[in-house]
Amino acid sequence: MKTSTLYLLLGLTLVGCNSKNEQSHETVTKSASKSIIDLSHSYSDKTIYWVTAKEFKLDTVFKGQTEKGYYYAANNFSTAEHGGTHIDAPIHFAKNAQTVDEIPLEKLIGNAIKIDVTIKSSNNPDYLVSIEDFTNWEKDHGHTIPDKSIVLIETGFSKYYPDKVKYLGTDERGDHAVKLLHFPGLSPEAATWLVENRNINAIGIDTPSIDYGQSEYFQSHVILLKQNIPAFENLTNLDKLPSNEFEIIALPMKIEGGSGAPLRIVALVSEEKS
After folding, report:
1. Which of 231, 230, 188 is nearest to 209 (CA)?
2. Which CATH code, of 3.40.50.2300, 3.30.70.560, 3.50.30.50, 3.40.50.1110, is assigned to 3-53+81-270?
3. 10 Å Cβ neighbour count for 153?
4. Which residue in 73, 176, 194, 263 is deepest, having the highest Cβ count within 10 Å?
């Protein structure tokens, strides 16, 4: 592991151990010359899941003073792999591909860029991110997407979370509700262009799926995951990120054999960029 990355991880650990008076729900934390931006939604009874998936449930085991005089709290939780801010492991849509626990950490930690399509998707919930969106980013920055980048796509849809009607297109649940989904995603053509012409480590989006809501065959999933490119879904706070020169740490629950998992993902942004 590179020394710089080790220092960044140590910084995250120290932030996590700050005094109990610091609010844990802050989305931006200052650490040395970096801002740490939380790109994850919290898990609760409001967490958004795919319309056919089991939703998050938290059951209290105990909360209060014990007979021996000390305070104690413990819960049980249950959840589908794919819901809230989570990772899609390659095996989710590619036979014999990597499971969550098999994804190399190098794919989940590293330099990142952001593609902003908020203007295009603001009046089009079925917007498909195009090849042109990526090539325009490259023209604006004067170079191609750097090798082994983590690519994040900002559609602006996270502002609707957790309003299911605005974010998913429907608050109905069950198989019939799949046809009612409306939200932006990555076009299969753009997914193909990425795997054939660029060398990215992972991709993420601030909607429920890399494929748009009206997708029937999840082609973008298949194209990316077959190449062992994991996907991060239901991200938030992408509006707080610059378009390039920041880092991502995306650490999912390490579920052996998992096709996906809850994800805590943060961005590290230089002070001059934030």
Report:
1. 231
2. 3.50.30.50
3. 26
4. 263
